[in-house]
Amino acid sequence: MRLTAKGRYAVTAMLDLALHQDDGSICLADISRRQSISLSYLEQLFAKLRRQNLVTSVRGPGGGYRLNRMPSEIYIAEIVDSVDEHVDATKCSGRADCQHGDICLSHQLWSELSDQIHGFLSGIDLASIIERREVQQIAARQDANIEEIARMPMTAEA
């Protein structure tokens, strides 16, 4: 069973966006710094998230991204699906050719598990995650770390 970095990073970035939505538009560089996700990778993910109308981009000074809906209206499965990610527990990636081109004995079991996982993620919205105390604590730590780095004096390189 795999949920690759693409799906995990997309969910993490959307959580970051939801946590900071009261700050206005959020630039990807800020998300990149807080979440240690490559800026170029975030740009690719956000292009897909924007195409699926999960986020909207704001141009110009103070530009960045905003959620296109309330966090309570955006579900984790939507985010994962929007970046072309699929949670699949089957050996054959759902093609039913797991045993030398034929279906194997346990294919249906793993296929049903995949459906259960997708259903589980379909019932969890961003708001329910960002309201958790431990998530709030992690976000506060990340914000403090970024503020501390910003206050550090720049050193000139020789």
3D architecture notes:
The protein has a domain of 108 residues: Winged helix-like DNA-binding domain superfamily/Winged helix DNA-binding domain (Arc Repressor Mutant, subunit A, Orthogonal Bundle). Helices cover 53% and strands 5% of the residues. The chain contains 7 helices and 2 strands; from the N terminus they run H-H-H-E-E-H-H-H-H. The protein has a two-stranded antiparallel sheet with strand order 1-2. The chain is elongated. The mean pLDDT is 90.
Low-confidence stretches: none
Q: What would you call the quaternary organization?
A: single chain
What's the level 1 CATH class of the domain at 5-85 and 125-151?
Mainly Alpha
Gross morphology is elongated
Q: What percentage of residues falls in helices of 4 or more residues?
A: 40-55%
Number of helices, where a helix is a run of at least 4 consecutive DSSP H or I residues: 7
Whole-Å distance between the termini? 50 Å
Q: Briefly note the structural class of the backbone.
A: mainly alpha
List the helices and strands and how they pair.
Layout: H1 5-19, H2 28-35, H3 39-51, E1 55-58, E2 64-67, H4 76-82, H5 107-122, H6 126-130, H7 133-151
Antiparallel strand pairs: 1-2
Helix pairs in contact: 1-2, 1-3, 1-4
Brief rundown of the structure:
With 158 residues, this protein is mostly helical. It contains seven helices and two strands; from the N terminus they run αααββαααα.
Key terms for this structure?
two-stranded antiparallel sheet; mainly alpha; 158 residues; 2 strands
